[in-house]
Each structure stands twice: as structure tokens, then as C-alpha cells.
Please model this.
Amino acid sequence: MMKTIHSAWQQKKWKMILAASILTAGTAPALLSPHVVEAATNHKPTAYINNIPASYDVVIRQGVTYVALTELQFLGNYTFGYNNKTKEISIQTDRDKYILAPNTKTITKNGQTATLTAAPILVNGKAMLPLRAIGDAFGAQVSWNQAAKEAYIYQTDTALVKAYNGNDLVAAREAAIHLPRFSKLGQPRLELREERGDVDSTTTYIFEQGKKDRFFINKNNDLISYYEVKNGQALLKWQANIGNGSGTLGDLFFVKTKPYAEAGTRPSLAGKTIVSFQYSLMAEETSYTVTNKAGSVAEGAAVPSKGSIFVNAPDEK
Model:
């Protein structure tokens, strides 16, 4: 079985959200969706830090994108402070200490000063850091997606890349869902229509039989997202909100209802077989089902390695 390759914060996040079920299978070449529903024009900008949504809104001032200082917690074991008397912001990592201040481009790292491309600001009493400065100062990779109104802050995990490129399909799938994710929808992404608590929430992953480079994520049987993995990144190509009434969604045979809204280019599962994996937090095991358009082919259950979701499905060819 696969060894745990998540960082500590990833493991903690999964313990919180793996409440009920998880499904896995994949896709065929993409076909143009017959209809696309545009996202609301008042969609607020957001940020994703190592794939975790930011807790606070992104702020854009004079063409500069800012994220809250405390979002850096998802980059590592950072602690933060603000001295109201000196107006200084302090950031402590395992090895380094940074001092900076609102409205000044000067930053001090372990006593050595440097100049940022833009100064931090205060918004409603919260320290906000310019996106580019995070990359320059903290060794993270950053980018801004204007069409999706999303900022991405991430660090490449060499262990994930190695696992994805290896010959172990279970480990590769586990790595695939944790690679840095970026939207290619050309618009703000769709959202869950109804949030659920951790106990009631379900997450579904779908891979094509024997494949690792394309997958769906189905949240609460409400929002389905489709990703393609390229160059160590998972690219969001399509989404759909699905309804409650019976129906079909093209040849995506695992969807048994009509879409409420779609965005991007719908993929195809025509003639494909999928493998679904359902993780039970209570039983601490993963059940799997091999399925095609005609129905179930085989099923079973196994205990995944600690911190993981997927298991080997012996009936998967």
C-alpha cells in the first residue's frame, strides 16, 4: 500500500472532510458542452493556498492582488504577529523571521532588508500581503487567473510528483488529487448550492479504469468537477451542478440526473469502464466497484494505508 505523502495540514483537512463517501473513475476525450451557464457577475475574487480555499476575500487595489496574511498558514508551520504600537507585522517560520509593515515596501528577513514589489496594506484591521510578494519572500509559486478571479499560491511537493509518475496506480491516483489545481473554465467556477456539515458531506472521485491522468470530483452529488493532469498540475476543465430529477448528462453514465448548470467543456465516458472507491470513516475501509454503462462488474473492500483514500481493486484490469 501507498505510504502517506500528505503534509500535516493536508492530513488534518482530510480527517475533517472525509465524512461519508468517495468514488473514483475517469474519462474519455472531451466534447463541447451543449450549454454553459455563466457565473454571476458579482462573483468575489478568491485564493487557493495549496488547494485550500482562502478564509478571507481577495482584495484588488490599483491592479495589485492582496491576500490575508494568515492564509500563509497553509504554506507551512508559520506563526504571525502584529505590534499595534510599532505597526510591524512579524512572520516566524521554522528557520526564518520576517518583519514588515503596512504601506511600506521594506521587508526584513533575519535582519537582512529587501524591497517588495508592493507594500502590505490593512483592510478592516486585517493585514493583507501582495500576492507577488508572497512568492518572492516565502519561496511559493503564485499566479492570478483573471477569467476565474482566482489567485493560486502553492509549493511543489516533490514526493507527490514522484508518486504520480511512479508505476503504483494507487499511489499515483492519491497523488493526482493533491497536485496543484488550476481553473481552465474561462469564468468563475460554479459553487455548491447547499453546504453540508462534515458528517453529512460526501466527496466522490472518478477515474477511468486503469488511468490516473483524468478525474472527476463529485461533492454531495451536487457539484461535479472534471480535471486533467498535465505537467504536475490538475487543470479544471468542466463543472456541473446537478439536480434532483431523473435524467442523463450526456454519456456520463454515473450521473443519473439532468444538469442544473454547466461550465467549461464536458468530457466523455462513452465506452469506458470506471472504478469507484467509497471511503468509510466509521469503518476505516474503502469499498470499490468496477462499473460500466451496463452496470456493476465487480466490487469489494479493503483498508487503505493511513491518510490515504484509494486501494487496489483486484478486479480492475
